[in-house]
Amino acid sequence: MNEEVLNKFNIQQFQQDLLSWYYQHKRDLPWRQDQDPYKIWVSEIMLQQTKVDTVIPYFYRFIDKFPTVYELAAADEQDVLKAWEGLGYYSRAKNLQTAVREVVASYGGVVPENPDELGSLKGIGPYTKGAILSIAYNQPEPAVDGNVMRVISRILKIEEDIAKVKTRNLIEANVREIISKDDPASFNQAIMDLGSSICTPKAPACMFCPIQEHCKGFEDGVQEELPIKTKAKKQKKIPYVVLLIRNEKNEYVIEQRQDKGLLADLWQFPMVPINEIGRKHIENWVFSEYGIKVKLKEHKGNLKHVFSHIIWELEIYEAETKSIATDDPRLRFVNLEEIGNYPFPVSHQKMMQYLSEQ
DNA sequence: AATCCGGGGGT
DNA sequence: ACCCCAGGATT
Q: Which nucleotide C1' is nearest A91 CA?
């Protein structure tokens, strides 16, 4: 496909230009202090679809709480989710703990250096596998993320749709050709740093790019058109009434979500799907669903919460109940003190401002 | 191959 | 609004 471009590509000079730029400009990041495979691993999972600046405080707190695979393996899953609260994509945290437990049980607590063993762990896909192998173990393995796809598609003028797995594999094959065997850890991280600071999605700073003279996209003036990517479709809106149900002991009803799917195992205030039942039957629905008699009170406000694939349109109501206990295993009555121990999605954290004393 | 899965920030 | 972000699992 782009063999012609690759044939004329000066690999040695490219590596030298890229790496000398990186050695001079590399960012001082918390997970670059050492090459502890566990810490590299945690950082890579957190960084999936998440910006560096967002991850940094979470990384410090997480490593402080779970310094090695042993602390994480022994931890309560709810505590792990609490440490992940607000980061999103919560299955990352559950899969990470599952995989760490596997490392302790089957690999003596040592993160596998074998590509197949590493790649078989929960939550470790092709990117994360390559990142750990290259950064922690100095293996010349590609680590193709969004940055790398953008940078490589511009350099080699690859005009395939990067939303497709096939294109990711093509780029991986190309990286395998041009990666530095002497310092693969720096090579992979250099491309990522370049992608975040110079070779940005919009208005790339080609005039300051250390590898401009190697860039076929720039040579042909198409760098701003690359990479090619199909658009995501619009999110579907789903309306809910959310109930802040309080009893006479000033406790609120919270509910644990199911253990699979959206926001799995996190806690929330009960949500009534009003597009399914109609807003006339809210109190009846709550009784049939949870066995709790409630009386709707004041409308506290509305909230729109946008996910990647759906949009929640939330109407928040205060409600009262005479109940002080429940047999429903999903539910708990908690006071304002206890509620802070449970992992909540950001949308429901925002509702806590409406919780009142008395 | 397409869909599901969070939340934040830049433009 | 729209796009992107150090992606992976499931269908």
A: B5
A 100-129: CB within 7 Å of strand C? 122-129
Return d(Cα A268, Cα A242) in angstroms, integer. Answer: 9
pLDDT at A330: 97
- Assign domain A3-225 to its CATH architecture: Orthogonal Bundle (1.10)
Q: Per DSSP, what are the bridge partners of residue A113?
A: none
SS3 track for A157-174? CCCCECCCHHHHHHHHHH
Does any strand C atom come closer than 7 Å to the Cβ of A264? no
Phi, psi for residue A335 in degrees, rounded to 5: -90, 180
Q: What is residue A278's predicted lDDT score, i.e. its pLDDT?
A: 83
d(CA A41, CA A127): 11
pLDDT of residue A358: 52
The Cα A191–Cα A255 span in angstroms is 44
CA dihedral (A180, A182, A185, A189) positive or negative: negative
| Closest-lying nucleotide for A166 based on CA to C1' | B1
Residue A25: partners with Cβ closer than 8 Å, 6 or more residues away: A193, A197
Low-confidence ranges of chain A (pLDDT < 70): 1, 357-358
Q: Determine how many CB atoms are found less than 10 A away from the CB of residue A284.
A: 11
H runs (alpha helix) in A244-308: 274-277, 282-290
The gap between A308 CA and C3 C1' (Å) is 12
Cα dihedral A171, A174, A176, A177, rounded to 10, equals -170
Domain residue spans in chain A? 3-225, 236-354
Tokens representing A46 are: 């957190």
Position A357 scores a pLDDT of: 65
Q: Say how far apart CA A255 and CA A298 lie, in whole Å.
A: 21
CATH number of A236-354: 3.90.79.10
